[in-house]
């Protein structure tokens, strides 16, 4: 045995002590692990009970949102302008598709989707966020819906469902006013983060009233709980919480009048606005041509978008709010009111010998009117009278009155945007162009030409304030509140004088004899206007290419001696005012005698080839047949469509303003008393000839057309 080492003696006592020590250590370790496990189990069972109960329940139960029904949009009488109807539909959720090509081909076969629809669908899938549902088809019959439903095991990501879709009974008549709905975009969901926005079948307001009152119309979603197997198969329904429909919105709009005015515009491109003189309620805001909001709500296809965007009459633009036009002679009664307020004696007369010399230049009138006082200047629309007195008063003062009457103004209305145009004056021109105001600027502005730009809504407000002498404010929502409007500071005699002069435009020796109402004891007052859009070297304004013809305008109110309704009609490139005042006549006839108005409309629609909705559907079918594969893969997003429409409207206004700069004064006399001539042109406008015995409205001084100036002068409010 080596030195220093001792031999350990093993006996029963030593072994017993070693065993006890090891047993104790193992026991303590086991007890510690057991206590840890018990503590963890207790924590999970007690502290985390709610969490895991929910998770286990979610494995057994699925909870899905039920999209709420949107609130109805009603007219002033409670009739629906936008409602809901039961709908069978099919959506897809792109991120859940397993074999997208096979599944899409199966859907195309089951639902009979054409190539254009499939191209649009694939483009939407490529551009989508993945989790957001995409509409494949809606308005399905039960057989098609059932055919998809029974194939669901082989179509993961496909979501057939029963629900409600938005329905617009009068279609294109309310397209611009009401707007439309559509699935939320990626940007809209990221801004809101509301799970409702990505619920299959749910749509939000995209334009018009639908967009402005989205939160009111939205409602509250319902919920459905179902028991499912591990593979997701539904075993049974557990409970359902119904949705709460959104609140209705009641507009001041008169539904039948809105539809009538839109249909009466016929083949023209233009707008009709009618106001209640007592309340300021906007009874009608028709803009045509238009689009069918039912198509947009279903998801407009590339073919229909191409048809609308290529139409030179811009059916996507709301002309009531975003159309800007030189007002022409429609402002002459308002300018006369300004003259009266500045002390001009209405009996003071001038001699019109076909024009007026201002300084060393001679400015043409549209006719030779002889001796002219204020009343004759209104009903015969004598330019020379306004040349003279606008120079005498100073146009800076006249412009101030124009703004009081609503021109160049933005109104407090629930709309996304409105363009408010230009009322020019010396300060405006100096700021805009750095140039001094010239006599020819007063000449042009005095007859509503030059830099003057107004919207149809502003013209209707002007007509209402002329009729009442009060600061009537337009309103789009119906309320029970009694409205009080301040005075414009004109006495009764002055108001009555202008009313009578405007009555003589229609019922006396004026320029719109055929606007007389076919109703006993109801006389309408009005004022014609013609706005020149290109130089005389390009067109005489009444014939030739459609886009070179003059705009036709008419402002009116009735009854003339106790006004209840007032409004404006603007016809783009109608060839003169003879295209506008027959429409105003029929619209006012409908207001006072609906049956007479409808009889006149039906006769016209037979010649036009049906109602606006019927013509739109036929045009779409013809366009789709001719377009073939030349249509782009997909229409742009809603926001891009709206941005393009606004940009084109601003561009048109710039061209109008630029034309005023390039044509600062009338170059020669422009005759406008001959019947309007039609000429071959794409989609020719249907206009009515002015009577041979009644002179039509003058085109007056040239007004606007290139594209040089900037947006600041347009005053296009957003």
Question: What brief labels describe this structure?
Answer:
single chain; alpha+beta; 5-stranded antiparallel β-sheet; 25 helices; elongated
> Which stretches are poorly predicted, pLDDT < 50 over at least 5 residues?
667-718
Q: Structural class given helices, strands, pairing?
A: alpha+beta
Q: Strand percentage, roughly?
A: 15-25%
Give the number of DSSP strands: 21
Q: Give the end-to-end Cα distance, rounded to a whole number of Å.
A: 108 Å
Fraction in helix: 25-40%
Report Rg.
Answer: 35 Å
Mean pLDDT: 83
Count helical runs.
Answer: 25
* Main β-sheet description: 5 strands, mixed
Principal-axes geometry comes out as elongated
Outline the structure in words.
It is built from 25 helices and 21 strands. By secondary structure, the chain is α+β, with helices and mostly antiparallel strands. Helix 14 packs antiparallel against helix 21 (492-507). The protein is elongated, with a radius of gyration of 35 Å.
Can you lay out the helices and strands and say which pair or pack?
Blueprint: H1 12-47, H2 49-60, E1 61-66, E2 73-74, E3 80-92, H3 100-111, H4 115-127, E4 134-138, H5 142-149, E5 158-167, H6 175-178, E6 181-182, H7 186-192, E7 204-205, H8 208-212, H9 214-218, E8 222-228, E9 234-241, E10 249-250, H10 255-264, E11 270-276, E12 282-288, H11 293-297, H12 302-309, H13 319-322, H14 332-341, E13 350-352, E14 355-358, E15 361-364, E16 370-372, H15 374-379, H16 383-393, H17 395-404, E17 418-419, H18 426-433, H19 439-446, H20 456-468, H21 492-507, E18 525-531, E19 551-558, E20 565-571, H22 581-592, H23 594-608, H24 612-627, H25 638-662, E21 716-717
